[in-house]
Amino acid sequence: MFNHKLYQLSMLILVAGCTTQPDKVADSGPDIQCHSAEITGSMIHKSVCTTRAQRAVQQAQLEELRRTVDAQTAAAAATGTQH
User: Fold this and answer.
1) Up-side HSE of residue 3: CA atoms within 13 Å toward CB?
2) Whether 48 contacts 35, CB under 8 Å
3) Can you give the pTM of this predicted structure?
4) 61 phi, psi to nearest 5 deg
5) How far is CA 40 from each of CA 18, 35, 43, 45, rounded to the nearest angstrom?
């Protein structure tokens, strides 16, 4: 169970890291935002661009993960179980 919670926390951190403020916003076409992200395990930065729809999906996934972690934490606290 501990590994599952650790995995969820890792995913939460990963998704939260992807919701940084953009460096620029495209003036034309679909609402695209780009920002620089460091590739895991290296010092190399890469430009990452997402559409409004992609950011909405990421935000929804983040909120669902937060609700899940909060519910599991509350359930563990209610039963006095610690992992």
Assistant:
1) 0
2) yes
3) 0.52
4) -65, -40
5) 12, 15, 8, 9
Helix (H) or strand (E) holding 54: helix 52-79
| Strand ranges (E), the chain | 24-25, 32-38, 45-51
- The residue written with tokens 């669902």 in the block is 64
Pairing type for strands 32-38 and 45-51 reads antiparallel
Give 23-69 pLDDT, tens digit per residue. Answer: 555 455 568 999 898 888 888 889 999 999 999 999 999 999 999 99
CA distances from 79 to 7, 66, 69, 70, 76 (A): 22, 20, 15, 14, 5
**What token pair was written down for 2?**
């501990």
User: Residue 82: which H helix or E strand, with range?
Assistant: none
Measured between alpha carbons, how far is 37 from 71 in angstroms, rounded to an integer?
Answer: 31
